[in-house]
Amino acid sequence: MNLIRCDQAYSGQILDIFNDAILNSTALYEYKPRTPEVITAWFENKKRGNYPVIGLVTESGELMGFGSYGAFRAFPGYKYTVEHSVYVAAKYRGRGAGKLLLQEIVRHAREQNYHLLIGVIDSQNTVSINLHKRLGFQHAGTIKQSGFKFGRWLDVDFYQLTLDTPVNPIDG
Q1: Alpha-carbon distance 6 to 112, whole Å?
Q2: Domain that holds residue 58
Q3: Cα angle vertex 105, ends 20, 172, to 5°?
Q4: Per-residue confidence band for 1, with pLDDT thresholds at 50, 70 and 90
């Protein structure tokens, strides 16, 4: 397993992982599979914001999973806060890929002088919740019945990790 920076060359594999999550889980509160055009725009937004797309690949180059982060809210006062996500391909779950990806996300966020990482997790996703807790994230709140998918109301939990960066935050 190798951690890499993903580029457009991995867009097809990323699309497959996203769409599996959309169709088979509540990891994403979306109903319809994403298209290649959506992934192209997603990569452009990541590049524009200088947000990494981190992948974990097998020795043969197959993407096991990926993670990234982006703006939490589009207001200047939130410039030190990012919302992250991690997705692991179904056949690689339970092998530590999510942990490696989340650790790498934390490392990148610290290097980029962010102060707060936020994970927004479906309240029933105990695997993701436990992973976040093991890495020091703290529960910051629950929004009840915030989503509706698969014929039921869904609650969402917010988990946060406060970093020791930036050393000298500034307004403006």
Answers
A1: 17
A2: 2-162
A3: 115
A4: confident
Q: Dig out the tokens for 154 from the structure.
A: 């869904």
Q: At 170, give phi and psi (nearest 5°).
A: -130, 150
Nearest partner of 86 among 116, 36, 131, judged by Cα: 131
What's the full length of the chain, in residues? 172
Reading the block at residue 44, the tokens are 């452009």
DSSP 19: H
Spatial CA neighbour of 112 closest among 86, 138, 64, 80 = 80
Quote the pTM value. Answer: 0.95
Q: Which two tokens stand for residue 170?
A: 């500034």
Domain count, the chain: 1
Question: pLDDT for 132-148, tens place per residue?
Answer: 999 999 999 999 999 99
Which token pair is 50? 């200088």
Report the CATH number at residue 158: 3.40.630.30
Does 118 map to a domain? yes
